[in-house]
Amino acid sequence: MLTTPPPHTPQLELTQDDLLAVFHGLFENSLVAVLLTHPDGPVLAASPEACRMFGGDEATVCGLGRAGLADLDDPRILALAAQRARDGAARGPARMRRVGGERFEAELSSSVFAGCGGTLYSTLFVRDLEPQRRAERQVRESEERLRFALDSARIGDWEVDLRQKVSRRSLWHDRSFGHADLQADWGYARFMGHVHPDHRARVDAAYRRALAGDGDYDVEFLAIGADGRERWLWSKGRVYRDEQGEPCRVAGVHADVTARHQAERDAAEGLERLAAIIDSATDAILVADADERLLVVNPTAEEVFGCPAARALGRPLADFVELPAPLHTLRHRSGVTLRGRRADGSGFPVEASFSLGSAAGRSMMTLILRDVSQQQSLAQAREALEVAEAANRAKTDFLAHVSHELRTPLNAVIGFSDLMLQDAAAPLPPEQRRRVEHVREAGGHLLAMIRDLLDVARAEAGHLHVEPQPVALAQPLAEAVAIVQPIADTAGLTLQFAAAQVPAQPVRADPLRLRQVAVNLLGNAIKYNRPRGRIALSAAPAEGGVEIVVADTGEGMSPAQLERLFRPFERVGRERSRIEGAGLGLSLSRQLVDAMGGRLSVSSEVGVGSRFAVWLPWAGLSSSP
Fold this sequence. Notes:
42% of the residues lie in helices and 27% in strands. The strands form five sheets. The protein has a six-stranded antiparallel β-sheet. The protein has a five-stranded antiparallel β-sheet with strand order 2-1-5-4-3. A five-stranded antiparallel β-sheet has the order 7-6-10-9-8, with helices on both faces.
């Protein structure tokens, strides 16, 4: 029986068997390895935990002995053995060996006691330190990886002991506030001193909410660094509490997010610039999603399709553009002509370019459209003009050819008529003479018409021959009067011309063409005059040249007739009258005057008469004012 109980322990009446039962329970269920040995002898017993730790069964472990289980090369083994021999107990770390020879660090505790009969025994308690060291190593490596990640990302971490009023910060924490090195003194007041005045109330409120238990501390703010620079910081922290729920520690991280804020500002400005470009584009721009519904409609598209963007957004693209295939199959194409549809249902051609892209994970198709209605109309007009010009050239060529073929036999008719009238050896009877004169007169009229027809054809073909030169007006005008005077006399009309009043200064003109124009104008004044009417031919200086005027007292013309007056073959309503003419004289006269650098104008009043004016520049001037 035990006679000396442990201090402060109630006395127990234990038998030897009780003691053995207690020892056996401790030995079998110990969480550390237990070896029972003689102080300097063999290993007598090994606990189950010892067998697991050393990697063998009890017989094997005991068979290795103390020399096989301890690494005798470790001087700490000898030091512990000496301590136990001196003090009866020893405790400390040392290196042990497993059954397979693997060495491991362990914490040893050994003591010597006397058994029944005075036999000395020793117990050796072994705690394997490798799991703890492995865990410590893993924690250390994890901390190193975390530190490397934080430093690589330039994220500063911090921790504050609220009870001890002590803070721990990393170098990047202090650098985020513009300090090159860790600062010796840091506290909440110094932290708030770096926060921009406009943001302090918000940051302080976020911190106090976290202390009160309302979630984590998470805030972005503008900080003023020790270097004077302003930078955006993101701070996130967590409050840790004791068993009573009181805050005891706060830990968190700081990160400089200035670059992100700048990128967000740049992106916003880029979007604004892009929106401005889209809004100011002269082409219609539509953006549709993968379902072919409109996401963007610029102002030009509103105008082109006659539909406000507010009404167009979200509607199917097919409401506005007839696509040749589903949108997702079109990819990138340009210069494609499609059919557009306005809000009122009318269709029109558009030239389209489209490209497929994506933004924020969404597929989108951008279409740039241009209304080509006007261009197509112009192209059709040009094509029609080319066709008309080709037809006009063909007509001109035909007229020139036919006129040439007609002049040859006509000249023969006129020539033989002259011979018959002038044949003194065989004079014609009066009746036949009258008939031949009529033939010659009709032939002359037809020849003049053919000549005008040829001149019109040449003018339309651009081959009208005109040779402007200094010309004194009196002579060509007098010659024209001499040509038409007999006709005027026959018609009972008065033709007035004061040659002496014609300016002597020469004008720039072709004398033959000028006479031709004067004959045409005087001839029309005679043909379309009233009985016993008057014709006046005059010339006077005007606007850097001279104005030649032919005025008559004929029927006059209405404004509608004046609009058609200078068209070829136009006789302004007198086509069925008995007055001869083909409607070529005035058209040809205007082209001749234009070719000489002058201009031909007309004014008329129904029932009063008409006034034709030809302006020609003085010699030395080249064009009409």
